[in-house]
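Why does residue order matter? Because the sequence determines the fold. Keep that principle in mind as you read this record.
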Amino acid sequence: MRAFITGDPYTANDAGRGWIQRGVWPCKWISCKEAHQPPFVTTYRRRFTMDKDATVRAHVSADERYELFLDGRRIGRGPERSDPANWRYETYDIPISRGDHVLVARVWSLGRKAPFAQMTVYPGFIFSTEGEYIEKLGTGVAEWEAKKLEGYEFVDPSPAWGSGWNLIVDGEKFPWGFERGEGEGWAKAKDEDPGANGFIRNEYPNLHLMKPAILPPMVDRDIFAGSVRFVSDKPGVLVDLEDNITSELDSWNLIRGKGTIDVGAGVTRRVIVDLEEYYCCYPEIVISGGKGASVAVNWAESLYKSREGYGVKENRNELDGKDFWAVGDVFKPDGGRNRTFGPFWWQAGRYVELVVQTAAEPLTIESFTLRETRYPLEMESSFQSSDRRLEEAAPIMLRALQMCSHETYMDCPYYEQLQYAGDTRLECLATYAISRDDRLARQALSIYDSSRHTSGVIESRYPCHVTQVIPAFALWWIGMVHDYALWRDDLHFTKGLMPGVRAVIDFYLSSANKDGLIEAPNGWNFVDWVPGWPWGMSIDADLGVSGVVNWQFVYALSLARKLEESIGRASIGGQWAETANELASRLHGKFWNEKRGLFADDLGHTSFSEHVQCLALLSGVLDDGELKKCRDRVVKGLLDDPNLHRTTISYSHYLFETYRLLGRIDKMIDRMDLWFSLEGLG
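Structure:
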């Protein structure tokens, strides 16, 4: 039903129009008059009659997100995450039979309570059709109705953050049957701005610049996995296996698609399901009866031995004596039959907890379904190794990549759910190695480019309605452009990103001090979560002159040189090479420690790290010229000095790349104990 287009669907309409009218769609955004300040949930309907069977093409979007129903059946959801300058819409070819029908959309606009990654212009919905169906079905043309949906309360998602507030759904207030267009309170929708061709629209107010979705539909399938490991009649957080009602374990295996569960009046049941794998899912629970009850559906990656800081998990297979510290949603039945409850957005983790507390009326859980969602990324390549540890770790790594791949890449599916450039570079590289599908990577490259500030720097995580700049991540984005060019040989796409590459370089050059060294670019100068580095910043990275910051710039210049040469701009590449060599020479004068044979992290030579040595070696400036004499000593120090600040998980990529460069894969294997231990830790 989804169709994919690459250009604007109404370009032909622009023939003969003046420049100010070009790019105006025939259909408009609509909104709900009674919905004012977010957060709120609205619904829109269009009742209509078809005089023949037909396939209707519709371009659909919403602010912030929508679900689309035809005659009560969900046929789509979106829009694909992006930003106001690239507001995405999905195109559907909808087969509709002769007769009476109703189209319905549910739209939620959460404002400050939305996920950080969710951007907004103003709340609304658009269903823009083509040809003869514009007048029959198009929003702002046909008579669409709207109303605000009651029964939703939004609650803080702690211990998660940034992923959007969770739900409490009150079944007694909820307008059951809205997806079929039923119920009272419908009123004429309010017209807003016409849809706008985001490629060419000119002279416009604050509106959605619309562009077609570029990603395939996310995975959308039921999973029947795992087993019930704990059933108790006591609510709470702590799991004590002494409380486990083992006689009920099998009957609660609804997660495997088996049968129904009856829960009597005045009863509490706490059920923990181990999915035995990490999943991102939309949970859906169907309940009959149970007026006055509450049913919580909570998710956790692991149970916690301690909740100090970000929590101590230890072995993830273990339950006893640990806390189920989780995020989730609460559903309150109204006593009706076959009431379907679920959240707007998916949840993530290995463990699912159901907490059922009934009042004076019993309830029946008719079904409990988990629908997996993620980007449809699968391993097209193959991996074999004589080292059993690598073969055992590879599936875990693949699953981690899949769980962090959705409408954007994510640093983590459980917490922020944000596309950070430092993480995304590594996720893209892994994607290139296993799949020919590079659409998610192209999305990331382009949307970072769209986030650019006037200074030339890009945002560290994007799309995101909370602005954050990590200057180093702009350099990693240059690395992303380099990697794409290397793996995909797509000259046209690469050329389009090169002005942004040059802008990042100019941003860094504008931070040079009188000595020609880069001095703490404005922002959070995060490097790596090294113990002892405050907020992940190496010494002097925050306000002074840092060896790590400067050497990363040299490394990025070396990649930019290769990029320029690959697109036929060798003269600009030569400029970046000259800049890199000049800066490296200054760094040698200020940061080289002859006694230790290493580059220091700071001008006072009080700190030394693997990070600096790796960046210096990877940049290639030690391979010849005046700095060649340092190379062997840097290599020896990196390999043998036990007192260097060590790279942590994500930065280990650059350490491993350096080991590869040096032909020392044995050292890489020695540093992979963390990955090799994952299987045993659950």
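The radius of gyration is 28 Å.
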